[in-house]
Amino acid sequence: MFEHVLVVCIGNICRSPVAEAMLRRALPTKQLSSAGLGALVGQGVDPGARELAEAEGLDVSGHQARQLTREMLVAADLILVMSQGQRRAVGELAPQALGKTMTLGRWLPGEPEIPDPYRKSRDAFAYAHRLLNDATSAWAKRL
Fold first, then answer.
1. Which of 33, 36, 100, 124 could form a disulfide with 120 if both were Cys (CB 3.0 to 4.6 A apart)?
2. Which stretch of DSSP H or E encloses residue 9?
3. What pLDDT score does 113 carry?
4. Is residue 116 annotated as part of the catalytic site, yes or no?
5. Spatial contact of 8 and 39, defined as CB atoms under 8 Å apart
6. Measured between alpha carbons, how far is 54 from 58 in angstroms, rounded to an integer?
């Protein structure tokens, strides 16, 4: 059903590549990718996010940030975003993709948005990482 899952955030260096790695570990048979609405194209995972990911045994070393395109949205079966604002932005880029775009935090209590930790404290990265872990676990059970 949902074979190709695309995870989206802003820069594609903090939240979406880590969520992609978490989903890849839980769902090894799925096609998983990530991109950013305002990607820092070519950059690797932010050191704050990478440290937390690697501490859990996730390999994000090969990641390079990619700019989200209309074609990526059309090709995906499910698009997971970090906020309602990002969901609206996806709808503006590809209106036909809106119906298959959901927040990553959809299955968590209160359906929280996952805040961007970029250029913030280690605590901000740790909080976002915990939410990513909980949210990807909840999605993995449903995919």
1. 124
2. strand 4-9
3. 97
4. yes
5. no
6. 5
The parent domain of residue 46 ranges over: 4-142
Mean pLDDT of the chain, nearest integer: 97
pLDDT at 1: 78
Amino acid making up residue 75: A
**Average of per-residue pLDDT across 121-133:** 97
Total Cβ atoms within 10 A of residue 3: 13
Catalytic residue among 14, 15, 46, 50: 15
The SS3 assignment for 40 reads coil
Amino acid at 65: A
Q: What pairs with residue 8 in β-bridges? A: 35, 81
Q: Which of 9, 14, 46, 66 is catalytic?
A: 9
Which of 24, 25, 77, 116 is an active site residue? 116
Number of domains composing the chain: 1
Q: Name 9's Cβ contacts closer than 8 Å, sequence gap at least 6.
A: 15, 16, 19, 34, 36, 37, 81, 82, 86, 114, 116
Query: Is 9 one of the catalytic residues?
Result: yes
Distance of alpha carbon 138 from alpha carbon 22, whole angstroms: 11
Share of the chain above pLDDT 90, in %: 99
pTM: 0.97
Residue 51: CB atoms within 10 A of its CB come to 14
